[in-house]
Hints:
By secondary structure, this protein is of the alpha+beta class.
Amino acid sequence: xxxxxxxxxxxxxxxxxxxxxxxxxxxxxxxxxxxxxxxxxxxxxxxxxxxxxxxxxxxxxxxxxxxxxxxxxxxxxxxxxxxxx
Length: 85
């Protein structure tokens, strides 16, 4: 798999991503890349030179199962108050 590469428009520095290390351009925009995550103060001043393709999901779960799991994940925990005698 190829690493993600970006260029900061302010300092024209090209940065290549690494799965575990964080790299930054060092200028006032602070374009930072770590793995497949990009951050900067102004992302409109960052150009992606290549992009990572997404893998097709070959999951076992059906769409209904995925919807159920997502709804289940968003449930809140209820707090019950009991009187102590």
